[in-house]
From TrEMBL:
Residues 1-20 are annotated as: Disordered. This is DUF397 domain-containing protein. It holds the Pfam family DUF397. Residues 6-57 form the DUF397 domain. It comes from the Bacteria.
Amino acid sequence: MDLTRAAWRKSSRSNSNGGACVEVADNLPGVVAVRDSKDPAGPALAFTPAAWRAFIAPHAPTR
């Protein structure tokens, strides 16, 4: 999978002291990619948008 055009952003749930950071790229058609910010050249997980929504739904902040 080509992720060269991925626009990575740090998860709002990431640790603020620089560790335990997850980055998400949701700007690619038909895929949401997730990677470890400490290893940007390492592997990334790829989800369909529907699978990503299902994954984060139980963890969405409540108001």
